[in-house]
Write a structure and sequence with these properties.
The complex is a heterodimer. By secondary structure, chain A is an alpha/beta fold. In chain A, 42% of the residues lie in helices and 10% in strands. Chain B is built from 13 helices and 14 strands. The chains are: A alpha/beta, B alpha/beta.
């Protein structure tokens, strides 16, 4: 039974609360980026990707590669919700001998590729997309990149190859939250305009509100493509917790007890209001 | 008789080779290209990924015969390795081919993360390794690759000594599900093995028995050790010669036996003396309680002397004469 936009919107709030919980418990995590990309993951895993715990080993599954691996908490929370592993396992995040380390690894069910060093996921995605073309399989390959991450030159090597081979089965989503660890991406080392860059590399480009469930759903399900597609998802780092929004220090900030109480209270109120709306 | 210009063998070394009945084979690179083509003809899932390197990799015929099994990515080694990992994740048997100097420096992080850590069975093929590119200078030398990759978990390091080892290595790694790095050069080499010799990853091949000296060599330096062993025989010393074609996992048993049974050990590699075969052997010997005389022959920590591969080998004693001298110094 497909989930409605409303149900997905409720998911997003619950996911955000869980992200804050597991980061608080672990005492470590990338809070801001997880909150900025979680709506994208919500739409991907609940509406777009043809993959489930049962089909994860199928050669025909859609692939999702999280190149901005540091936002792994969002991915873990969504994968747990989709049944790839019990949610309780997230209590072990960053603990001794846990597979739930601070970046994705294939030891965790549902993870396609170990990432964390930036600028790796798109090349891997190009390889998976070329393999799909060769084998005549119709799976899609989706990668999530950070806008700060796009300073890594390897992304553009991969973008060039994807354009050259016309990989219409490849989608790169840029979590365009405009902040990186030091500050504004355009002030650290400007890599704008991203849309023109991807177009120059022979990609189709779409720009979308990265927190709008309907808008994300529309661009992520649109097919067919004639080229690789870059989706510039305009997002807010720290989205959903007012004092974390658009503040660089929350890149890997862990809330104090007081901040945790305030954040969870705000999200709980948001959830109650959303649930009350028929 | 004079050696052809640029030969890595002196006239005296050629005479010794002739006395040993050795015949000249071809470059390991040529053997690699043919072995790969044969594999790929038999399996459409065998793919070669190149970075504008099909010419240097002798893969022109492969590209013509099996155009849809070669993926060209342009001069972009990082992407080469990442794409190779993505292909391997979809069940392809991928050979990522590029000059060793670029592949293992520029794309080291991709080898570490995308291949080894993520456990995709990519065959990382470093061509024209060591100082094969000689006079092109240090940008084109790979003297760091074994040291860097030894410290990375989950990748085997294989350095074949002749055409036989190259062919066997390619055939073997094509079947394995583990990441592997294979490196070789492009100079023609003597054949060291009978075609029925046994080749196994992680298991050294003893070419010659002896108990005064042990030469533990890898890759295209092995022939020089063998010639030195023959030269030393004429001076009354018996020398063991071991082709350590797998640098990791190292055949520790062969190293320990050499240290226990021989008076001295000379290791030889076309690589920095830091972090390569020599230091690996030294660590094994010391931790096993053996302290034979030991000399690590390779490229020292300095701006590498300029010149051809032959010049560089001769300069640093990677030659019959140089290795015999190193051995004599240890046992005199």
């Amino acid at each position: 039974m497909p989930l409605s936009d409303r149900q997905l919107a409720l998911n997003s709030i619950r996911y955000r609360r869980r992200i804050i919980e597991i980061i608080k418990r672990a005492g470590a995590g990338h809070t801001g980026g997880s909150l900025s990309c979680v709506d994208i993951l919500n739409v991907l895993y609940n509406r777009v990707l043809r993959v489930s715990p049962d089909t994860f080993n199928s050669p025909d599954r859609d692939r999702y590669i999280q190149s901005k691996g540091h936002s792994v908490e969002a991915l873990f929370v969504v994968l747990a919700d989709r049944g790839f592993f019990p949610d309780a396992q997230l209590e072990t995040l960053c603990q001794y001998k846990s597979h739930f380390v601070g970046h994705p690894t294939r030891k965790v069910p549902g993870i396609e590729q170990n990432t964390g060093a930036l600028g790796h996921g798109l090349s891997f995605g190009v390889g998976a997309a070329i393999a799909g073309k060769r084998d005549g399989r119709d799976y899609g390959v989706f990668t999530l990149l950070g806008d700060g991450e796009l300073a890594e030159g390897s992304n553009w090597e991969a973008a060039m190859a994807a354009g050259h081979y016309g990989l219409d089965n490849l989608v790169a989503i840029v979590d365009h939250n405009t902040l990186q660890i030091t500050g504004r991406t355009r002030e650290v080392c400007c890599n704008e305009p991203l849309d023109e860059k991807f177009r120059a590399f022979k990609w189709e480009v779409r720009t979308v509100d990265g927190h709008s469930i309907p808008a994300l759903s529309e661009v992520l399900t649109a097919r067919p493509h004639r080229r690789p597609v870059a989706i510039i998802a305009n997002t807010i780092k720290g989205k959903g917790v007012s004092f974390m929004e658009d503040v660089a220090k929350w890149h890997h900030g862990v809330p104090t007890d007081g901040e945790y109480a305030a954040a969870t209270k705000e999200l709980d109120q948001m959830l109650a209001q959303a649930e009350a709306r028929a | 008789m004079s050696a052809p210009a640029g030969s890595i063998f002196s006239p005296a070394a050629r005479e010794v080779a002739s006395r040993l009945g050795l015949t000249m084979g071809r470059a390991n690179l040529d053997e690699f290209a043919d072995a790969l083509l044969a594999l790929a003809r038999a399996d459409r899932d065998v793919l070669v990924v190149t970075s504008d390197s099909r010419g240097s990799g002798k893969l022109g015929p492969f590209g013509q015969a099996l155009a849809d099994q070669i993926v060209e990515l342009g001069i972009a080694e990082q992407n080469l390795v990442g794409v190779a990992a993505g292909l391997a994740s979809c069940g392809k048997r991928v050979f990522a081919v590029s000059p060793a100097c670029f592949l293992t420096a520029r794309a080291l992080e991709q080898i570490k993360n995308d291949v080894a850590y993520s456990d995709h069975p990519v065959k990382v093929i470093g061509i024209s390794a060591g100082v094969s590119y000689g006079a092109l200078g240090s940008t084109h030398h790979s003297l760091h690759d074994l040291a860097a990759l030894r410290a990375i978990h989950n990748i085997d390091l294989v350095v074949p000594a002749d055409n036989f080892e190259t062919r066997k290595a390619i055939e073997t790694v094509a079947k394995t599900t583990k990441p592997v790095y294979l490196r070789f050069g492009k100079a023609p080499l003597y054949d060291l093995h009978a075609t029925h010799a046994r080749f196994q990853i992680g298991k050294a091949i003893t070419l010659r028995q002896g108990d005064d000296m042990a030469f533990i060599a890898t890759g295209e330096t092995v022939i020089h050790a063998l010639l030195a062993a023959e030269a030393l025989r004429e001076q009354g010393l018996s020398s063991r010669v071991i082709s350590m074609h797998t640098v990791k996992p190292l055949d520790a048993d062969a190293v320990v036996s050499a240290g226990r049974e021989c008076r001295a050990v000379v290791t030889v590699e076309e690589h920095s003396i830091f972090g390569g075969l020599g230091e690996a052997c030294a660590a094994v010997l010391l931790q096993a309680g053996h302290r034979p005389g030991l000399k690590i022959v390779g490229i020292p920590d300095e701006y590498t002397v300029t010149g051809s591969q032959a010049d560089i080998f001769r300069h640093y004693g990677i030659s019959m004469e140089g290795l015999a001298q190193a051995a004599m110094t240890l046992v005199k």
